[in-house]
């Protein structure tokens, strides 16, 4: 495939380029493309992100994705992309079964890496990735895992408030991530429903997000879990292969669902806070409802992704007669990320989390810093997912998280 020079390469205010090669072009590929396309135009970055190459197996489809999302050239084999010497960073937006292989090859080829969540399909894969990332860090490379919900200004603001002690000692963390796109039993058996491709079901897809977000907000890793999981619909129509968003066209015939449809678990933080988690794609009417509430001795905070410009805050130190939950509109310039965006009250959305992710990664690369969340953080989340599965298999027996 041709390798034309990306139009704006290295020209943005004379900044050195960060030439990105992205593997995958479906839902997450489109979201990451938005991030790369926009970050350098909104934030004053030390490097100029260049959308150099997009890669996918179907030549015509990847060409169309390149045109739609603004990539300068295409590849149909990720190995060729990883070996190109005009690429600085490999962005992995493929299903989980290829994360480890691509990331390890990219790190070995001297590239920085951004990898979509969950980091891998197994703890073994994630361990090898975290190890390779650590070795690569000594050579000046940076590897980040894409837990984008840390980059909602409201969740970053919540983290700030917890770290400042505004909630005091935490007692409860209550998290749910609810979607409903599997309610219809005729929904096709896409890759997200196959263990060999996705690793797990709602657990890895949604549970990984809320485990990362909860640990990020609390500021410590979980100690152990007690879980139940269920697969409600065990057989589904086979897809033809052509996908759109989360769905696909179906053909005749059915196949087995080999992942969980829902995962519920309780957990302990080492500092003593108790947590509950629920991840499901069967919450009829809930489209992308990620909700988290933290209760501490001095106050409480609540966030709902479907109202992502807001935080609810209760300050328990206020006089009882006046206290109560109040809405913080997280659109002020001194809220995280917002000094670069619109005037107060002009809110942001889902896609901006990917712009912020690109921004933070560019800074980490320019400063030679370990990024947050790192591959080591991704491995730790993978260990929690494995403990959830182990606990569910053993009838909810409390399962400590391996360190
Ligand atoms: C599907 O459940 C999905 O697209 C997840 O895979 C993403 O990580 C989440 O951000 C939105 O929902």
UniProtKB/TrEMBL annotation:
<dbReference type="InterPro" id="IPR055170">
    <property type="entry name" value="GFO_IDH_MocA-like_dom"/>
</dbReference>
<dbReference type="InterPro" id="IPR000683">
    <property type="entry name" value="Gfo/Idh/MocA-like_OxRdtase_N"/>
</dbReference>
<dbReference type="Pfam" id="PF22725">
    <property type="entry name" value="GFO_IDH_MocA_C3"/>
</dbReference>
<dbReference type="GO" id="GO:0016491">
    <property type="term" value="F:oxidoreductase activity"/>
</dbReference>
<feature type="domain" description="Gfo/Idh/MocA-like oxidoreductase N-terminal">
    <location>
        <begin position="18"/>
        <end position="142"/>
    </location>
</feature>
<dbReference type="GO" id="GO:0000166">
    <property type="term" value="F:nucleotide binding"/>
</dbReference>
<keyword id="KW-0560">Oxidoreductase</keyword>
<dbReference type="InterPro" id="IPR036291">
    <property type="entry name" value="NAD(P)-bd_dom_sf"/>
</dbReference>
<feature type="domain" description="GFO/IDH/MocA-like oxidoreductase">
    <location>
        <begin position="156"/>
        <end position="301"/>
    </location>
</feature>
<protein>
    <submittedName>
        <fullName>Putative dehydrogenase</fullName>
    </submittedName>
</protein>
<dbReference type="Pfam" id="PF01408">
    <property type="entry name" value="GFO_IDH_MocA"/>
</dbReference>
<dbReference type="InterPro" id="IPR050463">
    <property type="entry name" value="Gfo/Idh/MocA_oxidrdct_glycsds"/>
</dbReference>
């Amino acid at each position: 495939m041709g390798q034309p020079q990306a139009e704006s390469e290295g020209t943005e205010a004379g900044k050195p380029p960060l030439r990105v090669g992205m593997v995958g072009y479906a839902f997450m590929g489109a979201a990451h493309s938005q991030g790369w396309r926009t970050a350098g135009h909104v934030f004053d970055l030390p490097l100029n992100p260049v959308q150099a190459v997009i890669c996918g197996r179907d030549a015509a489809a990847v060409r169309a994705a390149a045109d739609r999302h603004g990539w300068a050239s295409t590849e149909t084999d990720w190995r060729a992309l990883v070996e190109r010497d005009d690429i600085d960073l490999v962005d992995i937006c493929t299903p989980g079964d290829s994360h480890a292989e691509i990331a390890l090859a990219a790190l070995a080829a001297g590239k920085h890496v951004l990898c979509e969540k969950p980091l891998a399909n197994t703890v073994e894969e994630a361990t090898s990735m975290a190890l390779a990332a650590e070795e690569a860090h000594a050579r000046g490379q940076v590897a980040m895992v894409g837990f984008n919900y840390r980059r909602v200004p409201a969740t970053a603001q919540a983290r700030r408030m917890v770290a400042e002690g505004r909630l005091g000692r935490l007692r409860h963390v209550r998290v749910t991530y609810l979607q409903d796109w599997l309610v219809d039993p005729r929904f096709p058996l896409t890759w997200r429903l196959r263990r060999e491709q996705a690793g797990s079901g709602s657990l890895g897809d949604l549970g990984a997000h809320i485990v990362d977000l909860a640990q990020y907000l609390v500021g410590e890793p979980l100690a152990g879990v007690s879980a139940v999981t269920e697969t409600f619909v065990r057989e589904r129509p086979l897809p033809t292969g052509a996908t759109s968003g989360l769905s696909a066209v179906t053909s005749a015939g059915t196949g087995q669902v080999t992942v969980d449809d829902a995962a519920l678990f309780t957990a302990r933080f080492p500092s003593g806070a108790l947590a509950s988690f629920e991840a499901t794609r069967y919450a009829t009417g809930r489209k992308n409802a990620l909700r988290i509430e933290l209760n501490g001795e001095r106050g409480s905070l609540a966030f709902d992704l479907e109202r992502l410009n807001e935080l609810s805050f209760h300050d328990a130190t206020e006089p009882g007669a006046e206290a109560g939950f109040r809405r913080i509109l997280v659109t002020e310039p001194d809220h995280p990320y917002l000094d670069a965006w619109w005037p107060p009250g002009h809110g942001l959305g889902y896609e901006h989390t990917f712009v912020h992710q690109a921004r933070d990664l560019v800074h980490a690369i320019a400063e030679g810093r370990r990024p947050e969340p790192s591959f080591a953080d991704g491995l730790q989340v993978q260990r929690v997912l494995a403990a959830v599965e182990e606990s569910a298999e053993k009838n909810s027996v409390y399962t400590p998280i391996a360190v």
